[in-house]
Design brief:
Blueprint lengths: L3 E5 L4 H12 L3 E6 L2 H8 L4 E4 L8 H7 L4 E4 L12 H24 L6 E7 L10 E2 L9 H14 L7 E7 L1 E3 L4 H11 L12 E2 L1 E3 H13 L5 E5 L5 E2 H12 L9 H8 L4 H4 L3 E2 L2 H5 L9 H9 L1
Parallel strand pairs: 1-2, 1-4, 2-3, 4-5, 5-7, 6-13, 7-11, 8-10
Antiparallel strand pairs: 9-12
Helix pairs in contact: 1-7, 4-5, 8-12
């Protein structure tokens, strides 16, 4: 039986994958977006589109669309690594997540017939960049900027539970996809024989294949017993040095041209901390919930993406 699913952030990397799967399996998808025209160029007449901006005062159209929906999947947010961090960019990152989620949850609250589940993206930045500690979904949050952002973001998500909805927070790691994201940016230097690890190379690289990210979202959508935080990272993690070596082997290229930390800090400012430091992140609750990863080995993941 098809269901009515509302999704924000549908034109992003993860959103496009999830929407495509939902439409292919026969679900009815309504896209909340700042640009219905752009979204329609991607999905055509297979989906419905509602103009959504968390700053809008008139939310009647949003509330009407939410009525009788079965689920809301919330992915929208300012791209964290789209530019060098400064106070303006950091404010936009925070507001797009905290205020955007708050506006969406408030609209759900005002709907006469509420969805059964609210599934929101979050990020492994929740755990901070305070060293190579091992963490699971029950570990304490970090104290840096991204940890603060994700903590405030998740507080807004959890409000959905106060009026009877199941809520899920999916803390996503570095998503591997050949067309967008971190891997796509790394491919060009490797293909030009100038690829290599970022920073010291000793930091953990919390990777996950795009198919598994989408799979975890759909797993939580389809399983009513799943709630709370889930880590969307592969169960077998490696450090940056090993990831770069394996990527080089898959591409038949060397991995010898290291990008020093000071260069990353010049380009990204404070944002470089999330690249040069990190934690060993384990998807314990994700595995305990019954999700079976398609790719738990980075070499097989890269071969699948780049063959």
């Amino acid at each position: 039986m098809s269901r009515k699913i509302i999704i924000t952030g549908a034109t992003g990397l993860i959103g496009k994958k999830i929407c495509t799967i939902l439409l292919e399996r026969g679900d009815k998808v309504t896209v909340f977006t700042r640009s219905p025209e752009r979204a329609a160029r991607i999905f055509g007449d297979k989906a419905e589109y509602v103009k959504w901006n968390y700053n809008e005062q008139d939310t009647s159209g949003i509330i009407n669309a939410i009525n009788y929906a079965d689920a809301v999947i919330h992915l929208a947010g300012e791209n964290v690594m789209s530019r060098r961090w400064n106070e303006t960019h950091k404010e936009r990152v925070l507001k797009s997540r905290m205020l955007g989620t708050r506006a969406l949850v408030n609209s759900i609250l005002r709907a006469e017939h509420k969805p059964e589940v609210f599934i929101s993206a979050s990020a492994v930045g929740y755990y901070g960049t305070e060293g190579n500690k091992k963490v699971t979904e029950t570990s304490n949050p970090g104290t840096d900027f991204l940890a603060n952002v994700t903590g405030l973001w998740e507080q807004e998500v959890k409000k959905a539970a106060s009026f009877g909805m199941r809520e899920v927070r999916i803390r996503t790691g570095i998503v591997l996809d050949k067309n967008e994201g971190a891997l796509a940016r790394m491919l060009t230097p490797f293909r030009l024989f100038i690829g290599g690890p970022l920073g010291s190379g000793k930091q953990w690289f919390p990777w996950i294949h795009i198919d598994d990210v989408a799979g975890i979202f759909l797993h939580t959508l389809d399983n009513p017993t799943v709630s709370g935080p889930l880590n969307a990272v592969a169960p077998v993690q490696i450090n940056m040095n090993d990831f770069s070596k394996i990527l080089g082997n898959v591409l038949h290229r060397p991995s010898i041209f290291r990008v020093p930390e000071f260069v990353l800090r010049l380009v990204l400012g404070e944002g470089a901390e999330s690249i040069v430091n990190g934690s060993y992140i384990l998807p314990k609750r994700t595995l305990d919930s019954g999700y079976n990863f398609k790719f738990d080995n980075v070499e097989s993941a890269l071969n699948d993406l780049l063959e």
